[in-house]
Amino acid sequence: MTFVGESDxxxxxxLPGTCADPVTxxxxxxxxxxxAAARRPTRLVPFLLLLALVAGCSPERYPQTALLPLSDYAxxxxxxxxxxxxxALGVFVLVEGxxxxxxxxFRGRPDDPEPPQIHGNTTIEIIWTLIPALILAAIAVPTVxxxxxxxxxxxGDVLKIEVIGHQWWWEFRYPDLNVTTANELHVPVGRTVExxxxxxxxxxSFWPPRFAGKRDVFxxxxxxxxxxxDSAGLFPGQCAEFCGxxxxxxxxxxxxxxxxxxDAWTAHMRTLGPKPAAAAPSGDSVKTASAxxxxxxxxxPAQGPQAKADSAAPSSQGPEYAKGExxxxxxxxxxxxSLQAVDAPKGMIGPNLATVGSRAYIAAGWLRNTDxxxxxxxxxxxxxxxxxxxxxxxxxxxEAKALRAYLRAHQ
Length: 411
Ligand code: CUA
Description:
15% strand; single chain; alpha+beta
């Protein structure tokens, strides 16, 4: 039998025993039922699938993308990536174009003589060594420049923020403002923030993709990163280093606000201090200070001018709030969670809850902060996020409602 474009070389590869194709009794390779021509369109299927996948992966549909940078730092990496991509695209088009041209222009026929050999042609070998070397050099220039730029220490009006990784949540301390948040990094638009990072336990990696690259955090060693956000909004971030079974649920949000909004947020946070000593139920300054939430009234969403006037007056906390406050102490929540954003005690096991009521997510970016989710999270942490340090405390549905009301008021 004869193959399309069959030559000695092809026949050698199709000898019995050297190929998976079935062999007939007379020793010839049996062609499968479908002809080569019929197979050609199906060969396009993987290519078409890849094309559909690329089209479906438009960065707008996936907020956790580094392809839509929102800071000076992120644009440095994006620029290197773009440059590399365009070089790779150029190489791909030229090489594949030359290959396709050669396949059709110089395709072999059975009676063709041996083509001229170019092995050992010094000129050609110098050319195809020099071209990739020059392309790599062209990519290396912006890459090395970017490495130096991103590793430089920021100067000028810089806001320092400490980032501490925990299994499996993120602590953010703002030493310049003396406030603390958990799982939400608040940054001002137009001002550089310098992140001083470390870990309370194992190695994690801090990654706010719209604003900066990935930076590992280690126990006992500080790593740094910086960026200047140029857009306001809420953007996701993620731990990017496997750190235990809930690594995938060690997410966070970056909340970037305009300078005026950031000042308002700072002013609000400064009110979330320790509870006045006279109202403290015991002498333990650190633990009782955690009950600081009572210095503020629960937030009621304003609905129209009248509602706004109502909510401005200090509203009563309600019986559920009082019950929740009691349960927060009785169930031992207070031992791991601080409720004060100002002067927050260091080394707490659980996330700071001073503003848990207004967070977009709970359980480190894993659940939307709805009443239902918050109660479920309080009742069954080991079902929601197996392996977390918060044990199931045998909280009843009614108790969870009270605890939820108490925590919701902490905004
Ligand atoms: Cu922390 Cu993965």
